[in-house]
Amino acid sequence: MRMALTLRRVYHISAFSWYAFVVKSLAAKDGEELPPGIFVYGGPWKYLTFLNLLLQMSFFGLAAVTDLQPGKNSESPLARCKDLLFSVFAFPVGMFVVALFWTIFSYDRELVYPATIDTFFPPWINHAMHTFVLPVILGEVLVQPHVYPQTKHALAMLGAVGVAYLCWIIWVYVSVGIWVYPLLRHFSSAGLMGFFFFNMSVVTLFYLLGEKLNSHIWSKKHVSKFTTKHKEISKR
Fold first, then answer.
1. Model confidence over 129-150: pLDDT tens digits?
2. Average pLDDT taken over every residue of the chain
């Protein structure tokens, strides 16, 4: 038990430190001479990749703080917040970023990550943003179980965040005439909405995958005990 707790603490602190380092490295690029449109209007804050890095960093930071709580803390408000952040956002969004990026990159990298960017961002940064997220997030699934909320509540929160991000990238386009990703300029208005709903469907599948992995890897008794209590609290 003590060994598992130590492993969990080391993992969370290491993951948080890694993401903090990557975010700092990206933020340092803001003042450099970058390709046109990369950081114009909104800087890195308009990219889902960067927002995902902040999300992952926030989760692992919260997880590290939760680990420091004395005694059994699985039902504390901080622990519930950590589980919510992971189950509803960190896992599905992290998986989505990796899957969508490499799918489009394999087809035509100019649609999502133009070759001109390689001059400014070395390959390790690209993999830090779009590859290493996958093993780190899967590692978290193995390190400890997570309490999942009611599916309808989780999907409502995911949907709200998805709509907010769509509104944000449309606002950027309306303001400066540049799409966040080159791929988007090839869509009509109807095509853009179709692409959005497709992406939300994929994110939903990743949420369900995370829930399935969580219940499969950990004992059903252990997971169901806390999940039942959490859902009872949600219904109040």
1. 999 999 999 999 999 999 999 9
2. 88
Section 212-227 average pLDDT: 71
pTM here is 0.88
Q: What are phi and psi of 16, to 5 degrees?
A: -60, -45
Q: CA 18, 119, 42: angle at the middle one, nearest 5? A: 65
Q: Quickly list H helices, 28-149.
A: 48-67, 77-84, 91-108, 123-130, 133-143
Question: Greater confidence, 139 or 40?
Answer: 139
Give the C-alpha separation, 64 to 235, whole Å: 29
Question: 213: Cβ–Cβ under 8 A, 6 or more apart, which residues?
Answer: 141
| Closest residue by Cα to residue 182 from 96, 110, 98 | 110
Residue of 82, 89, 86, 97 whose CA lies nearest to 156: 89
**CB-CB contact of 104 with 137 (8 Å):** no
Question: Using CB atoms within 10 A of its CB, is residue 103 exposed (0-12), middle (13-18) or buried (19+)?
Answer: exposed
Nearest to 60, CA basis, from 132, 161, 166, 152: 132
CA dist., res. 233 & res. 236, Å (int): 5
Q: Give the per-residue pLDDT at 71.
A: 64
Distance CA 86, CA 154 (A): 11
